[in-house]
Amino acid sequence: MAGLPGLNFSGPSRKTVQDLTEGEHEFNIRPNESVYFINCSDSTLSVNSRSAKVSAENLKNCTINVKYTPLTSFVEIVNCDGLHVHLAEGVSVNTITIDGSDHVTIHVVNAQEQVSGIWWHKVSKVYVDRGGEQGLFLLDKLEENNKITMFQHVCKPQPDGTFSKEPVMRDEKNRIATN
Questions:
Q1: Are 134 and 162 in contact (CB under 8 A)?
Q2: Rg of the Cα atoms in the chain
Q3: Residues 6+ apart with CB under 8 A from 114
Q4: How far apart are CA 20 and CA 41, in angstroms?
Q5: Phi and psi angles of residue 141, each rounded to the nearest 5 degrees, phi first
Q6: pLDDT of res. 116
């Protein structure tokens, strides 16, 4: 697909979409490919097929629509500001990681069925929008000094629609230890 603006193929298992500004863009990814959205702004990016993984880095004021469960069941968000990630009904993601990002909202239809855990580190204003009457759930309340923390957090959806939150620290052997 040479000649399409914003597409850079960097190997058989990775599709990089970069430097898109403004507008709505749709992508059909092969199941063995991961899609990486990098340095995009003011755009709506829709993943219209099953991919291996969805990653976002340095996005500003963007929306990502994930319409199929990634094969790895993994969504990664790094250094983004003003990002909205919509998981379509029926999309299930085991792990969402959010690092060094501000104003990120994960939109779900049913949090308990769609998300197993959200891990975050050095974030400010990260929400899960559970829709309907349940509304927004703020994830980063554990960090007293936003972006100044030495540990990660993990949260998991609960049957009542809320999320449990707990700090996670790594020990000297890089094993995960929860408090």
A1: no
A2: 16
A3: 87, 91, 92, 93, 108
A4: 6
A5: -65, -20
A6: 84
| pLDDT tens-place string over residues 100-132 | 999 999 998 887 788 888 888 888 888 888 776
The token pair at 11 is: 């190997």
d(CA 22, CA 157): 33
Summarised one tens digit per residue, pLDDT across range 143-176 is: 444 433 334 556 667 776 666 666 555 444 444 4
**Does residue 12 surpass a pLDDT of 50?**
no
SS (H, E, C) the chain: CCCCCCEEECCCCEEEEECCEEEEEEECCCCCCEEEEECCEEEEEEECCCCCCEEEECCEEEEEEECCCCCCCEEEEECCEEEEEEECCCCCEEEEEEECCEEEEEECCCHHHHEEEEEEECCEEEEEECCCCCCEEECHHHCCCCCCCCCEEEEEECCCCCEEEEEEEECCCCCEEEC
Distances in Å between the Cα of 27 and the Cα atoms of 5, 37, 47, 122 are: 12, 11, 5, 30
State the amino acid at position 32 in one-letter form. Answer: N
Q: What tokens were used for 35? A: 């899609």
pTM check: above 0.85: no
What type of residue sits at position 155?
C
CA gap 26, 123 in Å, rounded: 28
